């Protein structure tokens, strides 16, 4: 189900530690410095999602079997790397979770910004809004560690009469991708 897939991606983004500068980045063979160098534009670091999120996005794109979806996602990622306006809007229109540990479980993103991308994107790769519901299931191994950030999820099942074990996450993806494509990537 897409909700589990979205939670998996969120978990990867939230829990991935920074990569040591000498460690090779999976699938690309590049070091962190190589990736950071690629993300420079006129001497200015791109945006705050770099380099971790771009690395994760590239790894996810590499797993897409459907040619149309993969090509459109790669086009968006290349556009983000080049700070192309329409591509940055794909990222900007997608939800990001602030204050997750204190109960911000709704990140609906920006539907209008995603749909309005139709006029700006290359032919056929307009924005498609997807909203997923994800159950938060933190593995017991993480809950057992003293001082672990996941301790916050152990006892709190409800906050302000809303369940904290569910997350609602809106993302903007290229229209060439199906629900099945997104689910396959996240698994």
UniProtKB/TrEMBL annotation:
- Does the keyword field hold Signal? yes
Tell me which UniProt keywords the record has, alphabetically.
Signal
Q: Where is the Nose resistant-to-fluoxetine protein N-terminal domain?
A: 69-185
User: Pfam families per the record?
Assistant: NRF
Per the UniProt entry, the signal peptide is 1-20
InterPro entries documented for this protein = Nose-resist-to-fluoxetine_N, O2_lipid_transport_reg
Protein name per Swiss-Prot or TrEMBL: Nose resistant-to-fluoxetine protein N-terminal domain-containing protein
């Amino acid at each position: 189900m897409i909700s589990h897939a979205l939670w998996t991606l969120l978990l990867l983004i939230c829990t991935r530690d920074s990569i040591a500068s000498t460690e090779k980045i999976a699938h690309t063979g590049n070091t962190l410095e190589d990736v950071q160098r690629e993300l420079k534009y006129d001497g200015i670091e791109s945006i705050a999602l770099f380099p971790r999120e771009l690395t994760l996005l590239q790894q996810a794109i590499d797993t897409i079997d459907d040619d149309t979806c993969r090509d459109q996602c790669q086009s968006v990622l290349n556009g983000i790397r080049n700070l192309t306006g329409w591509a940055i809007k794909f990222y900007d229109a997608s939800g990001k979770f602030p204050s997750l540990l204190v109960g911000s479980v709704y990140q609906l993103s920006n539907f209008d910004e995603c749909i309005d991308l139709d006029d700006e994107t290359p032919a056929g790769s307009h924005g498609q809004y997807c909203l997923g519901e994800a159950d938060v299931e933190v593995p017991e191994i993480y809950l057992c560690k003293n001082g672990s950030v996941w301790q916050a999820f152990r006892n709190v099942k409800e906050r302000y009469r809303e369940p904290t074990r569910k997350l609602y996450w809106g993302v903007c993806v290229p229209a060439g991708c199906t629900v099945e494509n997104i689910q396959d990537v996240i698994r």
